[in-house]
Specification:
heterodimer; A: 230 residues; mainly alpha; 9 helices; B: 280 residues
Chain lengths: 230, 280
């Protein structure tokens, strides 16, 4: 297992370390736009920076999957002691670690910024990292969806297949919504009255789906390897 | 040099570095009171000082960076991760609720509805997965390094006791920060120091057992996160109850308050001893 961790670190260390840069995005955006900022506590710009960092981090997390969609590598890693399951586990753990690193940096930078702002005199600068925690779970959910497609169909074909499935799912949900629009009010009411419980259940569900995604990828991996181009 | 002497030397260097960071925190108390940014920077450095000290010691003594217990070791150990999450939560719920129940004030526990308990527990579970990483700064040093070096020198029980006391003393600057900043008396600060010292010594036995059982510091990181956060969550639920403003509990309720932690300490020291005997 240590060997696989070493391989991932050597191959993807710049992508992993780039999470620190993405987590610092709100501060970078503030520094770039410092001429136009009137209030040091400017929350919209900081949130904009955070979303930009979130999108960049998501793209970089997907980059670490590139290069593994090769037949030769797939067969070789299957024949090792750790097997393809060990390889996939390290991949999933690494991507999770990247998300955690992104969140940790974002929170550190944000709290540091708020501390400096408090010194300057703006005492009511609110932390934006509360939203970041929720975004982090969105990122976990998105990766849980992305990774099985990449390993089943390869990086390029996987994106198209995923898009097709997502469009089909959106259409299905829209049809469901139109057909049951009268009942949706009561469903929304249930969500409103139990918002705290619903939020906590969805966060745990994201984690459970990430694990489920790993199990699904394990089942699909060898089928995918046989269909890779080279 | 014998292995014991080597361990003693490494432990000495480690503790020296950790307590130098502690000294830095105490010396910076005044500038930290004046500036929020200064407070934040010093606090962050101090929070990571056990991990920094372990890395410096490994580098200085040419020990290398192997066996830092940084593998997750999920396979076969998932139940211990769940225990790392659940036990501190149960323990702190019992710590806060037992005195209230025993003293006959169950009407204060109005906030503890099924929905509230479940949502808080699930939130803590989710957050422990993504937000606990900051505590690696402590666990990499205490459980990942200090305990490993201390156990061959003073034995398992000695490591639980001395390790817990060292861990508790390291928090001293934070406990007396209020007093140094002009808030609160010295006796209050020392009271909080000794309270924390006793609690950490008891809880340290559980963290040590977790680290040895899973050969990873991550369950200890999660348990430490839960130790910090579950107190806040239970207090919040208590706050939602119908507690009168002038409410106070009798002094004797302090005994059942610390009972759950004492049980945890006793159970895990016994388990550590049993595992050690099995290994021999």
């Amino acid at each position: 297992m240590t060997g696989l961790v070493y391989k991932e670190w050597k191959q993807n260390r710049w992508f992993i370390l780039s999470m620190i840069l993405c987590g610092s995005a709100p501060l970078i955006v503030l520094l770039i736009m410092r001429g136009e900022i009137k209030d040091i506590g400017e929350a919209p710009i900081r949130i904009g920076g955070m979303i930009a960092g979130f999108l960049a981090a998501g793209a970089l997390q997907m980059m670490v999957l590139r290069g593994d969609d090769r037949k030769l590598w797939g067969y070789w890693i299957t024949s090792t002691a750790d097997g393809y399951k060990g390889f996939l586990r390290v991949k999933y753990e690494m991507i999770f670690a990247m998300i955690v690193l992104f969140l940790f940096t974002l929170q550190c930078v944000d709290r540091g910024y708020c501390a400096v702002a408090a010194d300057v005199g703006t005492r009511d600068v609110g932390e934006i990292s509360g939203i970041a925690v929720l975004l982090c779970f969105v990122q976990i959910l998105l990766r849980a969806i992305d990774i099985p497609f990449v390993y089943r169909f390869g990086s390029k074909k996987g994106s198209f297949v995923k898009l097709t499935y997502l469009i089909m799912l959106t259409i299905f949900l829209l049809v469901l919504f139109i057909l049951n629009k009268d009942r949706f009010d009561s469903i929304i009411e249930v969500f409103k009255t139990n918002s705290s419980l619903m939020l906590s259940v969805s966060l745990v569900l994201c984690l459970a789906l990430y694990y489920l995604s790993y199990r699904i990828t394990c089942r699909l991996y060898l089928k995918g390897v046989e269909q890779y181009d080279h | 040099m014998t292995i014991k002497k080597e361990n003693a030397k490494r432990l000495g260097i480690y503790l020296l570095i950790v307590f130098l960071f502690m000294l830095l925190y105490i010396l910076c108390a005044k500038p930290m009171n004046r500036s929020n940014a200064m407070y934040y920077i010093i606090y962050m450095i101090f929070s990571f000082s056990p991990a920094i000290a372990s890395l410096i010691t490994r580098f200085v003594t040419k020990e290398g960076f192997r066996d830092m217990k940084l593998h997750l070791h999920f396979s076969g150990n998932f139940k211990w991760y769940i225990l790392a999450f659940g036990l501190p939560l149960i323990c702190f719920s019992a710590m806060f609720m037992l005195p209230v129940i025993i003293s006959g004030h169950t009407d204060w526990l109005g906030g503890f509805t099924f929905s509230n308990i479940l949502s808080n527990a699930l939130l803590l579970f989710a957050f422990s997965a993504v937000q606990s990483i900051g505590l690696l700064g402590e666990e990499l040093g205490w459980r990942g390094y200090m305990n490993q070096k201390m156990e061959p020198l003073v034995g398992t029980v000695g490591t639980c006791l001395i390790g817990g006391i060292v861990w508790g003393l390291w928090h001293l600057p934070m406990d007396i920060a209020g007093h140094l900043g002009g808030n609160g008396t010295l006796s209050e600060a020392l009271g909080s120091t000794f309270g924390r010292l006793a609690m950490l010594t008891c809880f340290g036995a559980f963290l040590m057992w977790l680290t040895k059982k899973t050969n990873s510091v991550f369950p200890a990181v999660i348990a430490h996160f839960m130790y910090n956060e579950s107190q806040g969550a239970v207090m919040m639920l208590l706050g939602e109850g119908n507690i009168p403003e002038s409410a106070s509990l009798p002094l004797w309720t302090d005994v059942p308050r610390y009972f759950p932690l004492l049980v945890i300490a006793a159970v895990f020291v016994v388990l550590l001893m049993r595992d050690k005997r099995k290994a021999v």
